[in-house]
């Protein structure tokens, strides 16, 4: 289960099973795309988090107790913080020294290759433990500043009988309600003919897709036409992956 929390926080809960680790890669890929992170940063995050979660599953639950692991990410100016929370056996990875001067692969494996990779890819590693759970905090410095809230700009203009809606920025959970407010006069139109200019759209989530689908249904019910145009390839890919491309006229 993936949940969107306040501001730029995001959370996924997985079962403590190794076949669940694949879901983490999808979670991190979506995170990297939504934040427009460089591929190298996304790869580092994926590597460190996968190593950490795999170690927790393998060594934190020797009796195969069924449980859940929480992965939570948050963004602050200049850094991305990942919290990994579990209720398995306590283990402090920060207490185990990992040398950068390992001489052989065998030595790396015996000294903890997973911990070595986590420390090399993350800028800060912290660990806290209580009677009920363990919390591993991984911090990655990112060479860009993020505003605490996603930005979205819209503009409506009328050219004869056609309404042009221009979208710029991110259309996601954080600003879906604002976008829906912009759509209200369009939903009330009797014979709407709408062109949505997506040239400036940098990211769209399922919440944004739902808003556009609602608009499309309203337009069709009133005998109008909705056209999406000038999508970036990465935005079109999201429409294709979700099967939404067939619901719209895209040009």
Automatic annotation (TrEMBL):
InterPro entries, A to Z: Anti-sigma_ant, HATPase_C_sf, HATPase_dom, STAS_dom, STAS_dom_sf
STAS domain ranges (all copies): 152-251
Top-level taxon of the source organism: Bacteria
Membrane spanning stretches: none
Gene3D superfamilies for the chain: Histidine kinase-like ATPase, C-terminal domain, STAS domain
GO molecular function: anti-sigma factor antagonist activity
UniProt-listed SUPFAM superfamilies: ATPase domain of HSP90 chaperone/DNA topoisomerase II/histidine kinase, SpoIIaa-like
Database matches in PANTHER family: ANTI-SIGMA FACTOR ANTAGONIST TM_1081-RELATED, ANTI-SIGMA FACTOR ANTAGONIST TM_1081-RELATED-RELATED
Similarity remark: Belongs to the anti-sigma-factor antagonist family.
Record's protein name: Anti-sigma factor antagonist
Organism: Bacteroides caccae CL03T12C61
């Amino acid at each position: 289960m993936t949940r969107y929390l306040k501001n730029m926080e995001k959370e996924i809960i997985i079962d403590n099973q190794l076949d669940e680790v694949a879901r983490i890669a999808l979670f991190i890929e979506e995170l990297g795309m939504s934040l427009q992170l460089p591929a190298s940063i996304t790869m580092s995050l994926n590597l460190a988090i996968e190593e950490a979660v795999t170690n927790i599953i393998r060594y934190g639950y020797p009796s195969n107790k069924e449980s859940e692991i929480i992965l939570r990410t948050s963004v602050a100016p200049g850094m991305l913080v990942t919290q990994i929370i579990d209720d398995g056996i306590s283990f402090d990875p920060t207490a185990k020294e990992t040398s950068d001067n390992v001489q052989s692969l065998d030595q790396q494996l015996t000294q903890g290759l997973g911990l070595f990779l986590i420390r090399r890819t993350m800028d800060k590693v912290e660990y806290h433990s209580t009677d009920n759970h363990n919390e591993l905090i991984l911090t990655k410095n990112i060479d860009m500043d993020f505003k605490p809230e996603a930005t979205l700009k819209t503009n409506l203009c009328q050219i004869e009988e056609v309404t042009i809606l221009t979208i710029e920025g991110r259309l996601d959970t954080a600003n879906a309600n604002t976008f829906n407010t912009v759509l209200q006069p369009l939903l009330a139109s009797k014979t709407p003919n709408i062109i949505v200019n997506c040239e400036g759209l940098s990211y769209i989530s399922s919440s944004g897709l739902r808003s556009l689908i609602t608009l499309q249904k309203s337009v069709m019910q009133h005998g109008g036409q909705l056209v999406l145009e000038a999508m970036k390839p990465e935005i079109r890919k999201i429409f294709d992956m979700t099967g939404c491309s067939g619901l719209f006229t895209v040009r």
